[in-house]
Design brief:
The complex is a heterodimer of chains A (252) and B (194). Chain A is of the alpha/beta class. Chain A has helices at 46-54, 78-83, 101-115, 123-136, 154-168, 184-197, 213-216, 236-245, and strands at residues 6-17, 20-31, 35-39, 59-68, 71-72, 86-89, 96-100, 147-148, 172-176, 203-208, 221-226, 229-234. Chain B is elongated, with a radius of gyration of 18 Å. The mean pLDDT of chain B is 95. Classes of the chains: A alpha/beta (252), B alpha/beta (194).
């Protein structure tokens, strides 16, 4: 694998929801090993961007292209995108009563290994992987036995997302408003988790409208998304400027 | 007493009477491919009688599932709970008719009933008719019936984790049925066939 190779290449992306265009031509390039932040006010199209990249039904791409590790991302189903190494940490993780986190992830990991032509893990191998990842994220063992997101606090849901991310070892992680609803302690735990999963081959997109998370997960590149287009791209200092001045003054 | 009845294999009693302090935990399974016409009455005749009834049905094709329950609280301080979950596929037809009757002097009664069904196919038909007839004033009773579809958000969440479409749907169905399935030994899951 070559470092600094372009991992995600978004060109002229237009997307609509229920016939209304939300993204009006987004261009974005992410190389392996990079952390990018996408910031912007409410309604700018941040969540639409993550939805389109992961193939959420109801979002229609009307123009543009997305290449992911050289392949046509938009032609793939959501599960194929996952198998290719894409991961989304949901802003609002979904509750699945009656299905334990362990069984849920067993299904996910098995499907992924099958798609990669790898043999399935034995129950023992899988459970030791669960243990190892939970230790990495400083999580209590009983967490894996609980029903997926059922009765979780806001912080537990977000940690649960990062745990799933650790289990699936994605190449590109999109963290959609992972900081929303987290207090500083939970934010630090989540950020430590994300930082510990970072490798020179993997990249992440941090979608946020606050500066706070970016103090813990330091981005290489910061983009400002406003009204469905990226109006400015810079380094970490751009996030600092937004913290001081807000989004008002930032235009292309 | 704990009883499991598989329709088509076991006989379901038409009527049970629970006297003072008696309890029955009854789970009814209507396997896929089996049409069922269930008519069940329970009478709670002494204080402390407790009925815990659950049922699961998974009709497909041209299966028909008719369920009528009547729970009669004839004594005070009894408890009954009815929990039905079903998934209707194909051109199947489901009707659920449940009546909770609480006699005039049956105070301190607790009676609950819920029947929730998922429609997997536009051709399937579900009718539910939960009813309460309460003549006592110091009671806690609730009933509810919901008919719905598999959640798109839940499906997408699973697929985004790499769980393929068909398997994700099966997992969703198991999740929906889990309040009843959790009462069964796992070898019975094959009767459900999802």
């Amino acid at each position: 694998m070559i470092m600094n190779e372009v991992l995600l290449d978004i060109k002229g992306l237009h997307a609509s929801v229920e016939g209304k265009e939300i993204l009006h031509g987004v261009d974005l390039q992410i190389r392996r090993g990079e952390v990018h932040a996408v910031m912007g006010p409410n309604g700018a199209g941040k969540s639409t961007l993550s939805a389109v990249l992961t193939g959420r039904p109801g979002y229609e791409v009307t123009a543009g292209s997305v290449r992911f590790a050289g392949a046509d991302l938009l032609a793939m189903s959501p599960e194929e995108r996952s198998w290719a190494g894409l991961f989304l940490s949901f802003q609002y993780p979904i509750e699945i009563p009656g299905v334990s986190m362990t069984n849920f992830l067993k299904a996910a990991v098995s499907a992924r290994r099958k798609a990669a032509g790898l043999p399935d893990l034995s129950a023992g191998e899988f459970l030791s992987l669960v243990k190892q990842k939970m230790a990495l994220l400083k999580m209590k063992p009983e967490f894996a036995k609980r029903e997926v997101n059922v009765g979780f606090s806001g912080g537990e849901k977000k940690r649960g997302e990062i745990f799933q991310m650790a289990m699936l070892e994605p190449v590109l992680s999109i963290l959609d408003e992972t900081d929303s609803g987290l207090d500083v302690d939970a934010l630090k735990i989540v950020a430590d988790g994300v930082n510990s999963l970072k490798t020179p081959q993997t990249s992440s997109i941090i979608i946020t409208h606050y500066h706070k998370l970016l103090e813990y997960i330091v981005p290489d590149v910061v983009h400002v998304l406003k009204d469905g287009v990226i109006v400015k791209t810079g380094g970490k200092e751009l996030a600092d400027r937004i913290e001081a001045e807000g989004f008002e003054g930032i235009d292309g | 007493m704990d009883r499991l009845v598989v329709i088509g294999r076991d006989e379901l009693p038409r009527k049970v009477v629970l006297g003072a302090g008696e309890s029955l935990r009854l789970t009814v399974v209507v396997p896929q491919g089996v049409s069922a016409d269930i008519d069940f009455t329970a009478e709670l005749t002494g204080p402390g009688a407790d009925l815990d009834l659950a049922g699961v049905f998974v009709p497909a094709g041209s299966d028909t599932v008719r369920i009528r329950t009547l729970v009669r609280h004839l004594s005070g301080s009894c408890r009954s709970n009815q929990l039905f979950r079903g998934v209707a596929d194909g051109q199947s037809q489901v009707s659920f008719n449940g009546l909770i009757y609480v006699q005039r002097d049956a105070q301190k009664t607790e009676a609950y009933q819920s029947c929730n069904t998922l429609l997997l196919n536009e051709g399937a038909r579900v009718e539910t008719d939960p009813q309460l007839e309460i003549y006592a004033d110091d009671v806690v009773c609730s009933h509810g019936a919901a008919i719905g579809y598999l959640s798109e958000d839940e499906l997408f969440y699973m697929r985004s984790r790499g769980i393929p479409f068909e398997q994700a749907r099966r997992l969703q169905i198991l999740s929906f049925l889990s309040p009843v399935l959790s009462r069964l030994p796992e070898e019975y899951y094959s009767l459900i066939a999802f």
